[in-house]
Amino acid sequence: MAEVSPSRAVALAVVSRARRRDAYARELLRAAPEMARLSLKARGLASRLVLGSTACRGLLDAVLDSHLRRPRDLEPRVRDALRVACFEVMYLETSPEVSVFQGVELVRTVARRASGLANAVLRKVVSCDRPRVRSARERVTAALAGGVPVSVADVSLVAGMPSWLAVRLCASLPAPQAAAMALAQLEPAPAWVAANTGVCDAAQAYTRLRESGTAPVPVALPGSFLLEKPAALARSGLVGSVDVVVSDLGSQMVSRIGAPAPGTALLEVGQGRATKTILLENAAAALGGPAKVVAVDLSESKVELARERVSHGWEASVTSMAWDARLLDGPGLPRELDRSFDTVFCDVPCSGTGTMRRHPEISWALDPSALDADNPDGLPALQGRILEAASRRVAPGGTLVYATCSVLDEEGPAVVDRFLDSPAGRGFRREDCGRAPGVAAAPVPFQGMVRRWVLPSGDFASVPATDGPDGHFAARLVRRG
Ligand SMILES: C[S@@+](CC[C@H](N)C(=O)[O-])C[C@H]1O[C@@H](n2cnc3c(N)ncnc32)[C@H](O)[C@@H]1O
């Protein structure tokens, strides 16, 4: 009898490891020694099974529980195997016979006596749930073209996300965009990288990427590439040496929207691992030379990491420090922050709903109350507070950029509207992100790519779609002189 395939066995090992260690599935997938022994095709399937079964976790559990007499009795390792198999039956194109057979074998590898139960459950998934997904997908695909509404239930089922999140998504996005996002959620996300021009120019980055087997394809922004074989990047050493930074194209667009003029002062709030610091300096350099950047983050360990990364090419122009951005308008600021800046770029903590293809844990880990504007401990309150405090550091005539990787109104336009209505915000006016100097100076096709996502308000809001960038939001506010 045929055995369970290596890709499914590896997928189960990684999913179980993530549960036991309470770790991120994508990171374990990258580090898994078993992955290196798989063929490229098998690695692709293992990766889809791990990321997909993680992204749909709650929905798969509800499906499995509906077919079990005593769901609570299911051992965690059997549930892991059934989730992987259930995801394949419902969402992938594998024939039902193969996916059920493989699912039963997978369960047998962890609990021989549970194989009969697995067979019964997976057959029910084939007859009840697989057709539901297929018909929901047809309706969502029809909504993509426009003119047809999209239902919350279909978005939730097609994307494998909780219904409350689908409700918020459909309230934030026009139907064709909600449909495009739902259809893209369980597809592999494109892999973009940008050359770190502090270390190498676009031509050198291209050569190094090509020689390392990543099959780079230049995109409309010089130094930016789509990788056709992203798996080779991990072995290339180019990420560790910071010759390139891995960054979604939407994030690269936001960095051009925030691009400081050469030699001017920029305060970056929420520096994280310094990916945008490098992109912002790339953008300034493209305009003529680096900016003088002071960057803050609440997390000491991220500041350490950021310092190491910017030391590759930008050590002379970037200062990274640990500071709580909510205190940027208070007394006792360190000398580096007690001044005004030509640009203040706020990359605030957010739900990450624009990046769920890359971070599959997000949708089932999010607490809906964290998105309520009136929750004092929620994200919109934190984002508004950071924006307000950071606005005090903008010089007259200077620019304040507010950025998130969320697609939800509550964390984007609503936060900016509230700020502009507040006493601190009254001195600012909203400007068109598509006309930002860093965008206007970029090649015309890139300008078109950015402007495609600019809303009538002037804000930038990309939305995930198959082969498209992640969901990023940016508002550009100029302080009256
Ligand atoms: C969206 S991430 C930034 C990503 C980063 N800009 C990059 O490109 O890698 C938001 C960052 O804000 C930081 N943060 C959260 N609360 C903060 C606060 N009160 N003050 C400063 N930084 C904060 C987090 O540690 C996190 O690194």
UniProtKB/TrEMBL annotation:
<feature type="binding site">
    <location>
        <position position="297"/>
    </location>
    <ligand>
        <name>S-adenosyl-L-methionine</name>
    </ligand>
</feature>
<dbReference type="InterPro" id="IPR049560">
    <property type="entry name" value="MeTrfase_RsmB-F_NOP2_cat"/>
</dbReference>
<dbReference type="InterPro" id="IPR035926">
    <property type="entry name" value="NusB-like_sf"/>
</dbReference>
<keyword id="KW-0808">Transferase</keyword>
<keyword id="KW-0489">Methyltransferase</keyword>
<feature type="binding site">
    <location>
        <position position="324"/>
    </location>
    <ligand>
        <name>S-adenosyl-L-methionine</name>
    </ligand>
</feature>
<keyword id="KW-0694">RNA-binding</keyword>
<keyword id="KW-0949">S-adenosyl-L-methionine</keyword>
<dbReference type="Pfam" id="PF01029">
    <property type="entry name" value="NusB"/>
</dbReference>
<dbReference type="GO" id="GO:0001510">
    <property type="term" value="P:RNA methylation"/>
</dbReference>
<dbReference type="Pfam" id="PF01189">
    <property type="entry name" value="Methyltr_RsmB-F"/>
</dbReference>
<dbReference type="InterPro" id="IPR023267">
    <property type="entry name" value="RCMT"/>
</dbReference>
<dbReference type="GO" id="GO:0003723">
    <property type="term" value="F:RNA binding"/>
</dbReference>
<feature type="domain" description="SAM-dependent MTase RsmB/NOP-type">
    <location>
        <begin position="181"/>
        <end position="480"/>
    </location>
</feature>
<dbReference type="InterPro" id="IPR001678">
    <property type="entry name" value="MeTrfase_RsmB-F_NOP2_dom"/>
</dbReference>
<dbReference type="InterPro" id="IPR029063">
    <property type="entry name" value="SAM-dependent_MTases_sf"/>
</dbReference>
<dbReference type="GO" id="GO:0008173">
    <property type="term" value="F:RNA methyltransferase activity"/>
</dbReference>
<protein>
    <submittedName>
        <fullName>Ribosomal RNA small subunit methyltransferase B</fullName>
    </submittedName>
</protein>
<comment type="similarity">
    <text>Belongs to the class I-like SAM-binding methyltransferase superfamily. RsmB/NOP family.</text>
</comment>
<dbReference type="GO" id="GO:0006355">
    <property type="term" value="P:regulation of DNA-templated transcription"/>
</dbReference>
<dbReference type="InterPro" id="IPR006027">
    <property type="entry name" value="NusB_RsmB_TIM44"/>
</dbReference>
<feature type="active site" description="Nucleophile">
    <location>
        <position position="405"/>
    </location>
</feature>
<feature type="binding site">
    <location>
        <position position="347"/>
    </location>
    <ligand>
        <name>S-adenosyl-L-methionine</name>
    </ligand>
</feature>
